[in-house]
Every structure is written in C-alpha cells, then in structure tokens.
Design a protein that fits this description.
With about 180 residues, the protein is of the alpha+beta class. The chain has one domain: Gcn5-related N-acetyltransferase (GNAT) (Aminopeptidase). About 30% of the residues lie in helices and about 35% in strands. It has five helices and eight strands. Strands 1-2-3-4-5-6-8-7 form an eight-stranded mixed beta sheet, sandwiched between helices. The longest helix has 17 residues.
C-alpha cells in the first residue's frame, strides 16, 4: 500500500515513503544511473536502506518523499534537508534510470521547492550537482536556480576527482505563479 499523497502535480505525486518502498529504494540506489549522480559509490544492502529509512526518512530535519506516477508507480525521491538556523534547505532528488528524461524530476523538484518557500518559510534553497551531470544542471536551471560556485575536486568518482557545482534560488526569485494550482 503506497503512502498517502502529500502533493499532486500534473504527472507525478509526492507521497510519504513507507517500509514497503525499501526494496524499490535499494534497487534504484544501487543502479549506476542513480549512485553516480548522488555521489555514493558504495553498494547499499537492505539493512543499510532500512537504516536510511529509519534515520533520514523517518527522522526530523528532512522532508523526503517518494515521486510516483499513476498514484502508485515509484519513480524516485525528492527531498529537502532543512538548515533551520538559517531558513534554508538543500534540495536532493533522483529518478530511476528507466524513468529519466521524462520531466518527472523537474516537476517533483519544483513542487517541493515551492512547498518549501510557501509553507516552510525558507529564504533560500540550494542544490549541488557533479560537473558531469548535465541533465541535473539543466533541471536546476529550468527551475530558476543560479550557479553560485564550484568546489573543485570535491568528490572521488569513476577513478578521479570531480567538481561539485552549487546552485541556489532565493524566495523572491521563485516563480510562485507556476505552482498556484497545487493548493
């Protein structure tokens, strides 16, 4: 049974992540099309995925939701890691490789960013991507994020060090009108 819908968009819904979603999460995060993009090269077994579910998904300080299509088909995750003291959050997302390139990540990310500004009162939302992840960079730029800086050689992946690009969007830069029909 899927978790309850939190936000419904045109093609995706954002739902709570439940225990029965752990096998999907484990399978997807072990796919190179996901782990490369999130910078996690170590394999994840089911106990480790359950620990992530219990500590991160079920804990405080994060909003982590399952991106679904057709109310039940899991596609990926989208999250905001909250930095309460500074009224900001960090956006994170991934979509299963066989579902990428269809706009699901863009729609889900936009919905959660809008929620963060409207309902959580964030002043700033930031995100980071690796230099090689052109699709993720395009997603952020299409949502109005600005490239703000580069951490050089910050992550070891694929046998070498990669740059991490930091993006951000401020509440007064956000296109609220694009999401008015969500509420």
């Amino acid at each position: 049974m899927p978790g309850p819908a939190f936000l419904d968009g045109e093609t995706v819904s954002l739902r709570t992540i439940e225990e029965e979603d752990i096998p999907f999460l484990q399978e997807a995060v072990n796919d190179p099309g996901v782990w490369r993009g999130i910078g996690r090269a170590d394999p994840i077994n089911q106990p480790q995925e359950r620990e992530f579910f219990e500590e991160v998904v079920s804990g405080d300080g994060n909003i982590t939701l399952l991106v679904t299509r057709d109310a039940e088909t899991p596609l990926g995750t989208v999250s905001l890691t909250i930095k309460e003291a500074s009224q900001r959050a960090e956006l994170g997302y991934w979509i299963a490789p066989d579902q990428q390139g269809q706009g699901y990540g863009t729609e889900a990310s936009g919905m959660l960013v809008d929620f963060g500004f409207r309902h959580r009162g964030f002043h700033r939302i930031e995100a980071r991507v690796f230099e090689f992840n052109d699709d993720s960079r395009a997603l952020l730029e299409s949502l109005g994020f600005t490239h703000e800086g580069t951490h050089r050689d910050s992550q070891f992946l694929d046998g070498g060090y990669k740059d991490t690009l930091w993006y951000g969007v401020l509440e007064d830069e956000w296109d609220y009108a694009a999401y008015d029909d969500l509420y």
